[in-house]
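Researcher: Going back to the complex we discussed earlier. I've cleaned up the inputs and rechecked each line, so this should be the final set. Can you rerun the prediction on the complete assembly and write out the structure?
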Amino acid sequence: MPSPFVKIQDQDNQSQDLIIVPPSSGIALTGTIAIPGDKSISHRALMLGAIAEGTTIIQGLLLGEDPLSTARCFRAMGAKISQLNTEKVVVKGVGLGNLKEPSYVLNAGNSGTTMRLMLGLLASHPGKFFAVTGDKSLRSRPMSRVVEPLTQMGATIWGRENNSLAPLAVRGQKLKAIHYLSPVASAQVKSCVLLAGLMTEGKTTVTEPALSRDHSERMLQAFGAELEINPKTNSVTITGQPTLKGQTVIVPGDISSAAFWLVAAAIVPGSELLITNVGINPTRTGVLEALAMMEADIVQENERVVAGEPVADLRVKHSQLKACTIGGEIIPRLIDEVPILAVAAAFAEGTTVIKDAQELRVKESDRLAVMATELGKMGAQITELPDGLEITGGATLTGADLDSFTDHRIAMSLAIAALNAQGSTTIHRAEAASISYPNFVDTLKAAISE
Ligand code: S3P
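Model: Rerun complete. Updated structure for the full complex:
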């Protein structure tokens, strides 16, 4: 049902304001929400489909801007990818090692996953030349974290700032297997090295300081690659030059998108939501553990396994949240949910500390700085720490003039905060939400019960 409390206003051809004006009686959220497909799994399904032999069928693909960037890049390198839709995408792969040299620059848009994973594949295509770029945000994000291991494997990559910033130029090489000790717990780094290892003779190993999401490992195995996983040391080894065979991939809903509704219903009085078909892979469920520590009322129902990934429906009801401390090994498992957890903390009793989260400074925006400034404008008691945030909950938030900094997760986190604020909030450049959640605003309107 259309809501009079949530409006979109076009600023110019590209930019939109999201205006949220909760009535003084408050806005409750009720009903059932089906969230869009998982972004990480969508990228990987398109990429592995593109390099495998035969046909891959993808059901439930995320139609956000980021997977569109992946599809555009791999089409330019010869993969046949049908029109993108959520029902059934058909990918006809080129076979391992057969990506075509594109005659133009590959553009990863806003997507770090597209660029970093793709670089592993490009660097390992001997004799071929590739140029890759992205939007303004992506061109400022560190690529050294993947250029470094790829260079150790023998890759040739050039770019600005000592080969660390896109645009990057890649001359594909026959790479050598290495054991890479990654200084960061990053699934993008791990996946980049594993994808480079696909084309490389022998065994390539990545060890990370804490476990990051393992969708690449699961999907590579499903497509026929040989992996050894050592959970004690957070190491993964891939044996090079397998035959990858096209598969059917059923993409579960994205827990990172579900997180907005989990927090919305938890903080807005009178709310109860059922969020269906949520991927609950343990490398992604840090947000559920953090919200449990905050005493949120969330119940997992109908747990099942769909195409190798665990899935459940989540029922969430409003409750008074309590502060907690979030840090250490849980951080990589809730890395994208820190902005929305900061919103939860602003409505919790006591002081929440989020630490060990310095990685947030190199996401689509500096998410620590942006959340501190923007929630601060609403009157939240929030302090930026070098590696996190300290938030004392309980202050009444007031509507304010805010900016997404073109970061999708910031736009959506601020929208949820605005639901529980007094007065009108405007979020500039809110169209950024479509990077990972194209119908976020429509879903929000439909969930508001009057
Ligand atoms: C992703 C990994 C994470 C995450 C990003 C998606 C992936 O990034 O923040 O949204 O699909 O591999 P890092 O690997 O940089 O932590």
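Model: Worth noting: The chain has two domains: 6-37+252-449, 39-250.
Researcher: Good, that matches what I expected from the previous run.
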